[in-house]
Amino acid sequence: MTDAMEATPPPEGAGAVEVAPGVLWLRQPMPSFVEHVNIFALEEGEGWCVIDTGFDSPEARALWEAWLTGPLKGRPLRRMIATHHHPDHIGLAGWLCARFGIPLEMPRSGYFLARWLLAEAHEVPPQAMLDFWHRAGMDAQVLAVKARQRPSAFSGAVHPLPEGYLRLREGQQIRFGGRLWQIRMGEGHAPEHATFWSCDDDLVIGGDQLLRRSSPNLGVQFYEPEAPTVRDWIASAEALAAHAREDHLVLPGHGPVYRGLPARLAHMARRHRDALDRLEAHLNRPRQGGDCFSPLFRRSIGPEIYGLALAETLGHLNTLTAQDRALRETGADGIWRWRKT
């Protein structure tokens, strides 16, 4: 499905596209297959309210300088809001908050998880992470390479956050950008992922919870190894669908702005349910996590996305376990294996 808004050319370089009155769409290039992260700036009196920021890097700061003097017209930031804690969304939040003397507004879970990840920066993976990937069934050669690499780009891509923040809550009404918004949280991709639904017009700020062309990664991390991320995401999709309208204009974290949110949510939920069914059939004998790529992704998984693929595979396996459709057992080698019940 393509609509007129999806056909709107995205902003290029340091440019911006006005997608609604007083709402600018900016994009920062990403060093990955995702290509770009979306940033939205909404007029806030004589300044701006910014939703998400992109990564922290010299190139990203230079782009922000160009935005501030270009499409943002030299006017100051008045509000800094983050949808969730991932580095492509809060990388420059601390830098911008310090520069303009404004607080960071974001969900509690995301704020404290980001602070912990910044404090736990390691040059090599901690043993708990290596043990987790071993139990998950990571290919031995891949694991050997990961054991020598810096485990996360988080601290290198996120400027230190403010010492305090303003909490965004489920069901809260908040005013910014000349509109009143209802906050609705999603789960599965990130804990307490904030989405914002305008009470005054047709706008929905969806972050990574409401993407148009791809499904957000629903990966499991070593610090929450049994998280049923796919179950949580489907439940969130169903809850958000109750509020979705065909005419909503969705401003997502990546990809084009779009309409047709009810059909999009139904499509993504159906794809995950179908993937769970294929995975359940695949578990006709005990399988490690690394043995389960083919029924889920139905394509070859290269080394550049192996970790993401395994993390999302665990999200599906944990969901089947939580639904009593699969049983997880630990072998003498310490590796988890799943089989259908």
Automatic annotation (TrEMBL):
InterPro entries per UniProt: Metallo-B-lactamas (IPR001279), NDM-1-like (IPR050855), RibonucZ/Hydroxyglut_hydro (IPR036866), WH-like_DNA-bd_sf (IPR036388)
Pfam families (alphabetical): Lactamase_B (PF00753)
Signal sequence segment: none
Metallo-beta-lactamase domain residues: 36-254
GO biological process, one term: antibiotic catabolic process
Keyword Hydrolase part of the UniProt annotation: yes
Record bears the keyword Hydrolase: yes
GO molecular function: hydrolase activity
Keywords: Hydrolase
Family under the similarity heading: Belongs to the metallo-beta-lactamase superfamily. Class-B beta-lactamase family.
Protein name: Glyoxylase-like metal-dependent hydrolase (Beta-lactamase superfamily II)
